[in-house]
Amino acid sequence: MIGSLVATAFWAMLPAYVPNNFAVLAGGGRPIDGGRKWNGSRVLGDGKTWRGTAVGTAAGLAIALGLNALNEPISGALGVELPAFELHAALALAFGAMLGDIGASFVKRRSGRERGAAFPGLDQLDFVVGALLSAFIVAPGWALGVFTLPVLAVILVMTPVLHVTTNVVAYKLGLKNEPW
User: Fold this and answer.
1) What is the pLDDT along the chain (180 residues), one digit of tens a residue?
2) Which sign does the torsion angle of CA 119, 123, 124, 128 carry?
3) CA dihedral of 105, 21, 10, 57, whole degrees rounded to 10
4) Residue closest to 13 by CA, chosen among 153, 178, 171
5) Contact at 8 Å (CB) between 93 and 60?
6) Where do the domains of the chain lie?
7) Cα within 13 Å of Cα(70), Cβ side
8) Helix, strand, coil share (%) of the chain residues, nearest 5
């Protein structure tokens, strides 16, 4: 039972887990806030770009389409019925993850934190909140069927662990300037 919950949670969130990583790899480009300031500090900062948002969203969507193609053999091998992604649900998860991260950047700037400064809790779950909210708004039937309370509980425990681990690896590989 726990194994199937973890498999379902991980599978369902993969289109939301990957966008920010691809946005970092795409790097650079025109900042979304265009350099604007609000109360003396940047609205978002140079780390939130149109290119990163587009590439991250496209990567999340591509992951969902790839998972759909692999769904039957992997579900059979695991003995778990993994969810298939409706196109609008996949897009909502990927773009919602980006929106969650952008929203966190806005909160960080308002709290006086500079780009790259740690904000425990927010750093680990911002994209999850954005992805889930977007999925429930855009594809409510699909989201209610996939994100049951036990699956949501697994996501809330699993995500911070995965987030910290992948960020440390990216930092050690020189892909990130800070390990959070």
Assistant:
1) 788 999 999 999 999 999 988 988 887 889 988 888 888 888 888 888 999 999 999 999 999 999 999 999 999 999 999 999 999 999 999 999 999 999 888 888 777 767 666 666 667 789 999 999 999 999 999 999 999 999 999 999 999 898 888 878 888 988 777 776
2) positive
3) 80
4) 153
5) yes
6) 2-172
7) 10
8) 70, 5, 25
CB 92 within 8 A of CB 131: yes
For 178, half-sphere exposure in the C-beta direction (CA atoms, 13 angstrom radius) is 9
Task: Name the nearest CA neighbour of 49 among 35, 60, 66, 64.
Answer: 35
How many Cα neighbours within 13 Å face the side chain of 143? 17
Is 61:12 a contact under the CB 8 Å cutoff? Answer: no
Tokens 């036990």 belong to 150
